[in-house]
Amino acid sequence: MRGHRNIITCVALATTAAALRLDVNDEASVKEAASTIAQGLYVYHNPDSTAGQFNQPEPWFWWLSGSGWTGLLEYTVYTNDTTYQADILSALSQNVGPNYDFIPPEQAGHEANDDQMYWVYAALSALEHGFEPLPCEGARCECADHCVNSWLAISVNAWEGFVERWNEAIDTCGGGLKWQWNTGHPGFYYKNSVTNGGFFQISARLARYTGNQTYARWADKIWDWSTRVGLLSDDFHVFDGTSDNNGENCSGVNHDEWSYNIATYLHGAANMYAYTKGGPLWESRVKGFVETATSTFFTSDQSIMYEQKCEEARACSTDQTSFKASLSRWLGKTAVLVPSVREHVLGLLETSARGAAASCSGHGNSTCGMRWTTGGFDGQADFGTQLSALEVVQNLLATEGPELAIRPY
Ligand SMILES: *[C@@H]1O[C@H](CO)[C@@H](O)[C@H](O)[C@H]1NC(C)=O
Ligand SMILES: *[C@@H]1O[C@H](CO)[C@@H](O)[C@H](O)[C@H]1NC(C)=O
Ligand SMILES: *[C@@H]1O[C@H](CO)[C@@H](O)[C@H](O)[C@H]1NC(C)=O
Ligand SMILES: *[C@@H]1O[C@H](CO)[C@@H](O)[C@H](O)[C@H]1NC(C)=O
According to its UniProt record, which protein family does this protein belong to (predicted)? Predict the structure, then answer.
């Protein structure tokens, strides 16, 4: 073809790919759309690659695979489609590590607290939804509070590691969990929201599930610390992090706002609301987060979720394109636990899911884009955009799913 001026116009090819069909009021339609998007996510799955990982442009996005499996696990629960169930169990068991806490040897030297947490969320969801337990043998599965099943044992084992690492870092900032636990990483000096919000959420979910007040006391403590250093503001903004480098002692705060940070604290607060049997303090905090998330991460004209820090500039990184998955997931699960915000949250998810479905018209095969506000595919597609679209659509089903379990004894 070189040298040949081919003047075929694009008209014949411009059969604009139809957007994914989605009727947000029809359960069958939502399930079908979610199924199509899940297939688009699964093209990233490479059974030949490192155990249980999704292909990524670089090797260190292990946490995103954890988030992906959490999303697919909840997909399985919400839709009853068991296509991925065997792979989910296989991937989780290959990454749980010899101590049953999601510290696999392959991640040694790289793994950060928040990376581990994004796998622990899968274990907690499995626990809350009565998912088939992983085989788990030995001392790490055999202590009084843990024995109910392996998902609880794994979650508690990880939680105990976070407590240890909090205590190791107690000399700065009056507490707070560091982002990284490997001293060589720059994030070793960052005490940030995704990490401390994650510890808060895991504590709160364990408190709700087990009724054990040790976890609730930790949730309160992490909440108080987060407020004191200024990661949480009085009007429920959640800022990215604070530093204990060079004697800074958490005196300054990075005020960037990302959707997954507020989502992380939101769902922790929802679990504390449930743990306290509908306590008004936690309800007001849930409402505060929902209001602030609405004004910060949803467009004022169309009420569509967007990653305000990077999306319009098309500058979201491989991590950042996935953050809306976290916000969708934990808004949906918050609506399950806190009836007073349910209607508002479902409204936000519906407008956003419609936008997301319209974006799922890429490459002629329903690939989803990043910007849900454009009414079409914007050309930016990766694992994170696909996972975000899946979560916003499947969470329309969250409040119709089975109730979240509590410990049966
Ligand atoms: C859709 O097309 C893109 C580009 O060709 C491809 O990478 C992707 O695997 C396809 N997705 C599905 C679900 O077939
Ligand atoms: C899933 O299947 C189970 C049993 O097969 C049924 O009880 C349940 O209602 C189904 N859930 C959904 C969301 O369709
Ligand atoms: C409550 O949880 C803590 C922390 O995991 C544990 O040490 C303790 O044994 C638990 N208490 C009961 C009564 O199970
Ligand atoms: C660092 O801050 C904590 C409380 O936030 C305080 O207790 C401690 O004294 C401070 N350390 C230094 C060296 O200023």
Answer: Belongs to the glycosyl hydrolase 76 family.
